[in-house]
Amino acid sequence: MHFGPKLHDIIRLRLIEEVEGTSMGKYGYVITVTEVRDEDIGKGVIQDNSGFVCFNIRYRAILFRPFKNQVLDAVVTVVNQLGFFADVGPLQVFVSRHAMPTDLNNGYDHESNAWISDDREVEIRKGCGVRLKIMGVSVDVTEIVSAIGTRDEWLAGC
């Protein structure tokens, strides 16, 4: 059924389904596959034990790879007395209370579950957009496990 004149189209679709939205470890997250040329799809090799065919494929893609000192916009997802978590696309970043600007690091309000600055001009709560700077990234073999951020001079919030 698949080994017909549209084989390369089927391979392209399968590649996109399998890699878009996944982590490639140290290379980052695959946002989208941009190009798969016919000449970049290798000849198939039949696997003896299953009868499946494997293809080596070269392709171009747009990746998201966070790095130390990168400034990113994020959305706050969890707020607690230790700091807050924020999502930047597929990446979750933790900002410790100790990495926040000095006017925020003692301003956790249990009642509103938010970090509030001394002058009450900045409030960080779930759903807020924040700008943060990446202090470090932990990478596993297959995925970017975590990132730690700071808001120092990159102060932006709700």
TrEMBL record:
<feature type="domain" description="S1 motif">
    <location>
        <begin position="66"/>
        <end position="146"/>
    </location>
</feature>
<dbReference type="GO" id="GO:0006367">
    <property type="term" value="P:transcription initiation at RNA polymerase II promoter"/>
</dbReference>
<dbReference type="Pfam" id="PF00575">
    <property type="entry name" value="S1"/>
</dbReference>
<dbReference type="InterPro" id="IPR012340">
    <property type="entry name" value="NA-bd_OB-fold"/>
</dbReference>
<feature type="domain" description="RNA polymerase Rpb7-like N-terminal">
    <location>
        <begin position="1"/>
        <end position="51"/>
    </location>
</feature>
<dbReference type="InterPro" id="IPR036898">
    <property type="entry name" value="RNA_pol_Rpb7-like_N_sf"/>
</dbReference>
<keyword id="KW-0240">DNA-directed RNA polymerase</keyword>
<protein>
    <recommendedName>
        <fullName>S1 motif domain-containing protein</fullName>
    </recommendedName>
</protein>
<dbReference type="GO" id="GO:0031369">
    <property type="term" value="F:translation initiation factor binding"/>
</dbReference>
<dbReference type="GO" id="GO:0003697">
    <property type="term" value="F:single-stranded DNA binding"/>
</dbReference>
<dbReference type="GO" id="GO:0060213">
    <property type="term" value="P:positive regulation of nuclear-transcribed mRNA poly(A) tail shortening"/>
</dbReference>
<dbReference type="GO" id="GO:0003727">
    <property type="term" value="F:single-stranded RNA binding"/>
</dbReference>
<dbReference type="InterPro" id="IPR045113">
    <property type="entry name" value="Rpb7-like"/>
</dbReference>
<dbReference type="GO" id="GO:0000932">
    <property type="term" value="C:P-body"/>
</dbReference>
<dbReference type="Pfam" id="PF03876">
    <property type="entry name" value="SHS2_Rpb7-N"/>
</dbReference>
<dbReference type="InterPro" id="IPR005576">
    <property type="entry name" value="Rpb7-like_N"/>
</dbReference>
<keyword id="KW-0804">Transcription</keyword>
<dbReference type="InterPro" id="IPR003029">
    <property type="entry name" value="S1_domain"/>
</dbReference>
<dbReference type="GO" id="GO:0045948">
    <property type="term" value="P:positive regulation of translational initiation"/>
</dbReference>
<dbReference type="GO" id="GO:0005665">
    <property type="term" value="C:RNA polymerase II, core complex"/>
</dbReference>
<comment type="similarity">
    <text>Belongs to the eukaryotic RPB7/RPC8 RNA polymerase subunit family.</text>
</comment>
<keyword id="KW-0539">Nucleus</keyword>
